[in-house]
Amino acid sequence: MIAIKNKSPFLCLLIFLISSQTALATEIKVTVDRNPISINESVQLTFTASTSPDDDPDFSPLEKDFNILNQSKQSKSSWINGESSKTIQWVLNIMPKKVGDLLIPVIAFGDDHSKQSNLRVTENQTSNDNQNAELFLEVEATPKTTYVQSQVIYTLRLFSRVQLSQAQLSELELTDALVEKLGEVKKYNTLRNGVQYTVNELNYAIFPQKSGEINIPPMQLTAGVVSSSRARFNGFFNRQISKTKRIQSNAIRLNVQAVPETFK
Q1: Does domain 23-122 have CATH number 3.30.70?
Q2: pTM beyond cutoff 0.70
Q3: Which residue in 153, 98, 160 sits closest to 123, CA to CA?
């Protein structure tokens, strides 16, 4: 009994230290602005803490299933009714690499950690005629049946009814043909299925160098779709919200014939 009594202060101290360490751990909340999303859309992932965590976050575990497009850190301190409060946020725009129920893993902030969560990623919901789509690509080639070294006009049109930022279009590159860009981008408005669109049009000249079939792969556009501004924390953070979106056109197949002997 005496031995146990002598050890009790040490046990109490140990329990106190463990309890204090647990109490001092920073709670880090994880939220996404949409769930589910489609495979070619970005999602805003936010980590929020009310006190400074142990260290800077290590977001590398996210790279298994997501591309990290950009990230930022925001903080706010306030004093209300004699009490101070603090909010720290790490905001990431991420894009999924595959379809399915993806895991947002535990993220380490030094000795502090967030909790894991799930994000459902679905296939794109597409329509053959792109009816009422906010953003789509349309391509055509004229003529589709041609001769070696004859000119084919390839036209790409971007239809948009939303504001875009940082748009990036893939390059038109073909193995068995020469490609030349024709002129500058043409911009105009048009009505499609009763919806007003802004159109950006690009034209290319394609010169096939051998007979046979030439496949023109889909062109791909990655851009930020800008939505209206919104306020965070009673107007402290006011900024435009941009969601990264990736779209692609259809592929086109050319039938290239050898030049007839009579034309040589």
Answers
A1: no
A2: no
A3: 98
| Closest to 105 measured CA to CA, from 184, 154, 45 | 45
Q: Hey, where are the domains in the chain? A: 23-122, 135-263
| CATH number belonging to the domain at 135-263, selected among 2.30.33, 2.60.40, 3.30.70, 2.40.50 | 2.60.40
Q: What is the pLDDT of residues 98-154, one digit of tens each?
A: 999 999 999 999 999 999 999 999 887 554 556 668 999 999 999 999 999 999 999
At 61-96, the pLDDT tens digits run: 999 999 998 899 998 887 777 777 889 999 998 989
Fold agreement between 23-122 and 135-263 = yes
Per-residue burial over 194-227, b = 16 or more CB atoms within 10 Å of its CB, e = otherwise: eeebeebbbbbebebeeeeebebeebebbbbbee
Which residues lie closer than 8 Å to 158 by C-beta, 6 or more apart? Answer: 135, 136, 137, 169, 199, 200, 201, 221
Q: In this predicted model, what pLDDT tens digit does every residue of 113-124 receive, in sequence order?
A: 999 999 999 887
The vertex-113 CA angle with 89 and 93, nearest 5°, equals 40
